Automatic annotation (TrEMBL):
PANTHER family: ARGINASE/AGMATINASE, GUANIDINO ACID HYDROLASE, MITOCHONDRIAL. It comes from Nanobdella aerobiophila. Keywords: Hydrolase, Manganese, Metal-binding. This is Agmatinase. Belongs to the arginase family. PROSITE patterns: ARGINASE_2. Pfam families: Arginase. Mn(2+) binds at residues 100, 123, 125, 127, 208, 210. Binds 2 manganese ions per subunit. One of its GO terms (biological process) is putrescine biosynthetic process from arginine, via agmatine. The keyword Iron-sulfur does not apply. It comes from the Archaea. The keyword Secreted does not apply. GO terms for molecular function: agmatinase activity; metal ion binding.
């Protein structure tokens, strides 16, 4: 159990682990270790800095039991159906990955429950490479193709490595993104601009931990944004309705597990305090 989740069915925040790695093309796995690593590390992290958390208002619903599913389409449907059974629009969700393809069934469910929402996407990669099927590097492309996501509703932050195809698709579909250099160069203007775009909107936040320069992701990138940039962007938001957020692709180590817990708790505290 997550140390800070002392709530019950009435709690506003619901945490769910999705320990899946079938959507990853990497030979090195351990993505499925993420939820357990985060829960174990939560006992070493205490209060928050940027707002307050109420332990009674956070409930840990445990993990979705992925069993030994190997068929990727079956897996996406399976995750979607398990989430659909428990999803309540009046609650705010924290999803623990897993590789980033867990966000594929999550956003299908979100789309069916929310006519309009914006996606704030923190990732070193756009995950829009036109592979033949949805996986951790292509599922955003598929969500758009399948009309679960409008290109104009996406803001990507911290991009540092993208394929030739992705760069063209981002341009052709006019998707807003800030690369890691722009974030470092101009965080004040960028955070204000994002705040203006998201004013009065429903929001889902997806975090691939490889967006940060700390080297905590599976697919390591030498260029990344700081956790400070992430928190600054969130703190600048005003009239936003948060639907939920996910944190994916953690490559477990003591410092990275601790970082993941901090990001989760500070995110909760910011939305408790400012919204
Ligand atoms: Mn990703």
């Amino acid at each position: 159990m997550f140390a800070h989740a002392k709530g019950n069915k009435n709690s506003k925040w619901k945490m769910i682990g999705i320990p899946s790695e079938v959507g990853s093309l990497s030979n090195i796995k351990f993505y499925s270790n993420g939820p357990k690593a985060i829960r174990d590390a939560s006992y070493k992290v205490f209060d928050t800095l940027l707002g307050d958390i109420d332990l009674e208002d956070i409930e840990d619903l445990g993990d979705i039991d992925i069993e030994d599913i190997r068929d990727i389409n079956y897996l996406y449907n399976y995750i979607y159906n398990r989430l659909k059974e428990i999803y309540d629009k009046n609650k705010k969700y924290i999803f623990l990955g897993g590789d980033h393809s867990i966000t594929y069934p999550i956003l299908k469910l979100i789309r069916e429950n929310w006519n309009n929402y914006k996606l704030l996407y923190f990732d070193a990669h756009p995950d829009m490479h036109p592979d033949p099927y949805p996986n951790y590097e292509s599922y955003i492309y598929y969500l758009i193709k399948e009309e679960y996501l409008n290109p104009e509703d996406i803001i990507m932050v911290g991009i540092s490595n993208l394929s030739f195809e992705e760069k063209n698709i981002l341009k052709d579909w006019n998707i807003k993104y800030y690369n890691f250099y722009e974030v470092w160069d101009n965080i004040n203007d960028i955070s204000r601009e994002i705040s203006n775009i998201l004013d009065n909107k429903n929001l889902y936040i997806s975090i691939d931990i490889d967006v940060f320069e700390n080297g905590c992701g599976h697919w390591l990138e030498g260029m990344g944004i700081k956790v400070y940039h992430y928190l600054k962007i969130l703190k600048e938001l005003k009239n936003v309705h948060l639907i939920g957020f996910d944190l994916t692709e953690l490559f477990s180590s003591n410092i990275c597990n601790n970082l993941a817990v901090k990001i989760i708790l500070e995110t909760i505290s910011i939305f408790n305090y400012y919204k």
